[in-house]
Amino acid sequence: MTGTYCGISDPPLTEYGRADLAGSARLLENIAFDHCFSSPLTRCRQSLDLLDIACTYTVEEQLKEIDFGDWEGKNLDDIYANDRAGFDRWLKESMNFTFPAGESIHDFTDRVGEWFTKLTEKEFENVLIVSHSGVLRVGLCRLTGIPVDKYQCFSMSEGRVSKLCYQYDAAIIAYLNCQG
């Protein structure tokens, strides 16, 4: 599914994805996590299992990627060529855009942002969140105070580790998109 919009479709983790996690596992191996959270989608749960973190985890529906609707499984070139009107609306409407037969960006960012806000109300020292690029970028914005409409300004690759330090109602980005 590399290069395609893979939101709520549920393919298993690819061999490339499995191999890619080895470096990320090295970055996480010496961290004692209080709790882990995962998207319910297979690729995230498989990733969490492969990371072999000694931690209780909870599957959270709100950590699902956005529903790309009719664009699911397509790459940007296909969308541009076959749904130019939709593509142009996406650029123009930004946060008010709804993917054809899918989820609106506004609903997605509200859903994810609400989850991250509730997370800050819990008493955890270290948590691991295994989810999707869009989800993690929205969470990064919510926790750092960056306007959520800027969530697409960050690159978050599959199988990579990012670290935010959160205390006193403020988050600091320690690192983004790293692999050991």
Which helices and strands appear, and what pairs or packs with what?
Elements: H1 15-28, E1 35-38, H2 42-51, E2 57-59, H3 76-82, H4 84-93, H5 105-120, E3 127-130, H6 133-144, E4 161-167, E5 170-178
Helix pairs in contact: 3-4, 5-6
Q: What are the main properties of this structure?
A:
alpha/beta, three-stranded parallel β-sheet, 5 strands, 15% strand, globular
Model description:
It is a single chain. The protein is of the alpha/beta class and 180 residues long. 38% of the residues lie in helices and 15% in strands. It contains 6 helices and 5 strands; from the N terminus they run αβαβαααβαββ. The strands form 2 sheets. A 3-stranded parallel β-sheet has the order 2-1-3. Strand 4 and strand 5 form a beta hairpin. The longest helix has 16 residues.
Spatial strand arrangement across the major sheet: 2-1-3
Helix content, binned percent = 25-40%
Q: Averaged pLDDT, please?
A: 93
CATH class of the domain at 15-66 and 109-178: Alpha Beta
CATH superfamily (homologous) name of the domain at 15-66 and 109-178: Phosphoglycerate mutase-like
Q: Tell me about the biggest sheet?
A: 3 strands, parallel
Structural class: alpha/beta
Number of strands: 5
Distance between the termini: 24 Å
Strand content: 15-25%
Which residues sit in consecutive blocks of at least 5 with pLDDT less than 50? none
Number of helices: 6
Radius of gyration: 16 Å
